[in-house]
């Protein structure tokens, strides 16, 4: 999941760069490959502590975490919520907010036609949808992990079930929203 979230965050940053600095050279293939490798490296590092403390249960049906100190589980969970939710959310919102502000402030001369304004509004709506979808549909998973460590197991199980539905919904919605952004962005600007 961390790799997916990092990818969405990188896409927001890349879009921001394209809009606000259109004359900068495009990233080379090598740069893109290294960026993807870096995202996966960060994702693996984020999961390394979990891999280190996980053991197969005696019945062989599930993995169970065995932390040497319970406080480490709490620290890891909070760090993971920050890394895979709070930081990406901040970057996504800041990136898309800067794009929206830039589009409103830097209209080319003579672009005040109705078609351009409609396209701009649709791009802004799509960027807003991306941020809202990320915020709302990823939050239940973060709440579930925090409930598991700081709250009750019963409450966490309910949140995990709801979280699974939200993550599936997010995965289904993203291609449509990103497709809309790309199509509208290309046709309108």
UniProtKB/TrEMBL annotation:
InterPro entries linked to this entry: GPCR_Rhodpsn, GPCR_Rhodpsn_7TM
GO cellular component: plasma membrane
Keywords: G-protein coupled receptor, Membrane, Receptor, Transducer, Transmembrane, Transmembrane helix
Membrane topology, from the record: Multi-pass membrane protein
Keyword Nucleotide-binding applies: no
One MF term in the entry's GO annotations: G protein-coupled receptor activity
Signal peptide: none
Transmembrane regions listed in the UniProt entry: 76-103, 123-146, 158-181
Keyword Membrane: yes
Residue intervals of the G-protein coupled receptors family 1 profile domain: 1-178
GO process terms (BP): cellular response to hormone stimulus; G protein-coupled receptor signaling pathway
Record protein name field: G-protein coupled receptors family 1 profile domain-containing protein
Natural source organism: Nematostella vectensis
């Amino acid at each position: 999941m961390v790799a997916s979230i990092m990818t969405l965050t990188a896409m927001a940053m890349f879009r921001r760069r394209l809009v606000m600095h259109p004359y900068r050279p495009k990233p080379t293939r090598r740069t893109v490959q290294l960026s993807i490798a870096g995202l996966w490296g960060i994702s693996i590092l984020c999961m390394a502590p979990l891999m280190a403390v996980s053991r197969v249960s005696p019945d062989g049906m599930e993995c169970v975490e065995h932390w040497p100190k319970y406080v480490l589980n709490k620290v890891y969970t909070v760090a993971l919520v920050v890394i895979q939710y709070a930081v990406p959310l901040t970057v996504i919102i800041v990136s898309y907010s800067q794009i929206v502000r830039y589009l409103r402030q830097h209209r080319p001369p003579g672009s005040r036609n109705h078609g351009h304004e409609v396209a701009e509004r649709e791009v802004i709506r799509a960027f807003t949808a991306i941020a809202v979808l990320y915020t709302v549909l990823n939050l239940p998973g973060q709440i579930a992990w925090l409930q598991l460590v700081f709250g009750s197991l019963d409450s966490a199980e309910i949140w995990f079930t709801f979280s699974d539905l939200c993550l599936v919904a997010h995965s289904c919605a993203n291609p449509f929203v990103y497709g809309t952004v790309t199509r509208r962005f290309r046709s309108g600007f």
